[in-house]
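pls read this protein.

:::
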Amino acid sequence: RSYSSPETEGHLLNSFVQYFGDSLGRKVKRMPLIEETVLPGDTLLTLPVVIIGNGPSGICLSYLLSGYRPYLSPEAIHPNPILHTKLEEARHLSIVDQDLEYLSEGLEGRSSNPVAVLFDTLLHPDADFGYDYPPVLHWKLEQHNYIPHIVLGKGPPGGAWHSMEGCMLTISFGDWMELPGLTFKEWAASKRRNIKSDRVLPEEIARYYKHYVKVMGLQKNFRDNVYITSVSRLYRGKDDEDRSQINENISAQHLEVEDGQKSLIKRNWEVRGYQQATDGSHVPFCLFAENVALATGSFDSPARLQVEGEDFPFVLHSMSDFGAAISKGKLRGKADPVLIVGAGLSAADAVLCAYNNNIPVIHVFRRRVTDTSLIFKQLPKKLYPEYHKVYHMMCTQSHSGDSNLHSAYTSFPEHNVLSFKPEMKCVLQSASGLKKILKFSVALVLIGSHPNLFFLKDQGHSIGHHSNQPITCKGNPIEIDPYTYECTKEANLFALGPLVGDNFVRFLKGGALGIARCLAIRQKKKHELLEGGDGGGGDGVP
């Protein structure tokens, strides 16, 4: 690693506190080098909230923490009469200030998180029934509700959307990918972009998210090219489950406010990492946070088959690598087919990509083609013709025991990959136990992806629904309180988006709402304690 000098190191900290310094009313030193010992008494930057991840989850949370508040529009009538009656009862209050459990009671939708279903039906009423009703909310910027925070991301705002393949359309409609306060169609019109269909290219979504941060005035909260190396808790109470237990030796390190009183920002978390400079050097930093929100998404680590030979260079695990091989002409003129493993949309994209480039395909997947859980069964044919083309081939061009491969595409349903051989051969096994060896030019394994939470203790294995197992978006998401999105097993740690099972942008916005409400309540209680003259006691919040 190439570290910059201590002098340049201060520039990163200055950029962090250029905005926050005024609002927090304090002076700070430069950030220590990553190898240096951090003493609790050092005057270091402490923030109420650090958000890790700058994709749509992190952007939406920053929007709400910046003071934007949703209210029921004066003319709006929600098509759900029971929900509308509840909304009318507190029309004068923003949704952030209302009882989310009460509002979401009885609602049903395609998320297992009730607040996600609530927020989605307020922004897209009856969308799953094919209706295109406008949102029943309008937004106000209330500066007094601003909670200081910072959003740290590896690339520009938009997260993984900037690295997705641009040749495939999004599975969701453009309207479902948008964030509060700026419709996708408004953005497209302002950029004079001609959106020909309801589904759009990932690169358009990435540009929309980047523009959203700018037009909403959120840039001051965002830092790009930042890589997190560790997030660790500074102390633990005698009883981890009793969140009121405080280690006074460290929690007494408060931030001074202008009137001489002490605010109640606890140094619960230490966040370390580095920012990559334009010359490639690494500028280390260390900051403290009362709360950390995980919004890292699920595209960090491709899932693996865990079979022999999977590490050979001709076995790929991403569409970007496959696309690069095609664009460089590495597969042109190859007699042997491409081997694609998986039965999801990424695998279908790869099949289409190969098919459109006249590259023969062997398609291997474990499920039956009649399996009702296949994603193709959930997609209307009229809206997703290309995916149904792949599904049709999966069903009609499957391999039978005594036949040769089809010229352009052959599927192997109910088959597992046993191993890859160095001579570019693959050993398959059918459901009946029959083994078959196939020759291929390149293999592409697309069986999903997992979040990489290496920067947490035990890689975050302790905070899932199933303890001591890796976090996965479907099988083992982070266990949260359904209304606050706070981790049930780790106080002051929040998670949203794919990490809690909400893979669609439509639903991850509910996580931002739940977290914003929780933090707003705690912030209000702290202000009440300060006004009551308690300048240094506990925060009084469970």
Notes: The chain has two domains: 47-224+450-529, 305-447.
